[in-house]
Amino acid sequence: MSNPRSLQGKVAIITGAASGIGESAARLFIEHDAYVVIADIQDELAHQVIASINSDKVSYHHCDVRDEKQVESTVNYTLEKYGTLDILFSNAGIIGPLRSILDLDIEGLDNTFATNVRGVAATIKHAARAMVERKVRGSIICTASVAACLGGAGPHAYSASKHAVVGLMKTACGELGKYGIRVNCISPFGVATPLTCNAYGWEASEVEENSCAAANLKGVVLTAKHVAEAALFLASDASGYVSGQNLAIDGGFTVVSQSYSSI
C-alpha cells in the first residue's frame, strides 16, 4: 500500500533549516524520501546538520531571504542540481524587537518585516515561478504563528509580520490554485527552538515550562518535530486538496478564551 505522506522523488527547499523547526523538517522530509535544499545564513550550523544527516539527498545553499537575488539564486541552484522544485517550506524568520509599542524600535520592525514578510514573498515568487514554468503541482508552506491569530501572543513587530504572512498565503493561494499549486501556513504555539531561546534569553526548559503553563492541551510538550510533522502533511499528497489554510499547531490555544475560568 502506498504511503500518502511519502515525498519520494520530490524536491524541497526549506529556508531557515540550519536549526529549529526548519532543521526538524529537513530531517523528516529526507526520512520520507525527499531531496532537500537547506537554505540559511548559518553556514557552519547547516554543514553540521548535513554531516549528521549523512545522506546524498540533502545539500546546502547560503540564502539571506531579505535579499531577493539570493532567493532567486537558491531556486536556480535547486533547479540546476535536481531539475525541479516540488515543495517550498518558507520557514526562515526572526522574533524582532521585544519592546513596548510606546518604545518600539522602528528599524527593528523594518528588519523583522524584511525577513518575515518580504522574505516569504520573495521565496513564494521565485518558487512559484519555477513550479509554473515546469507545470509542477507543487506545495508551498509558510511558517506563521499563533501570534498571527491573537493579539498579545508575541512582540508587536513579530505579531504584525506573521499576520502579514497569513495574508500573503491567502492571496498566493487565490492566484496559484489555477496552476495546481497549493499554498498553506502552519502556526505553532511556543516551541523551544534556538530562535526563541536566544530572543528571550531562556533555556529550552524555561520555554517549555512557560508554554506548558499557558497551554490549553495538557500533558504534551510541543516540539519542533510536531511542527515538522504538520509541514510534512501539507507537503505530501495526504493534503492533496488542502489549500489556503492556516493550520494551528497549538493544542487548541487560539480557539479557547484564556480569560474564561473553567467550570
UniProtKB/TrEMBL annotation:
UniProt-recorded Gene Ontology molecular function terms: oxidoreductase activity, acting on the CH-OH group of donors, NAD or NADP as acceptor
SUPFAM superfamilies hit by this protein: NAD(P)-binding Rossmann-fold domains (SSF51735)
InterPro entries: NAD(P)-bd_dom_sf, SDR_fam
Keyword terms of this UniProt record: NAD
The keyword Disulfide bond is annotated on this UniProt entry: no
Highest taxon, organism lineage: Eukaryota
One Pfam family of this chain: adh_short_C2
Family stated for the protein in its record: Belongs to the short-chain dehydrogenases/reductases (SDR) family.
PANTHER family linked to this entry: SHORT-CHAIN DEHYDROGENASE REDUCTASE, SHORT-CHAIN DEHYDROGENASE REDUCTASE 3B
Name of this protein: Short-chain dehydrogenase reductase 3b-like
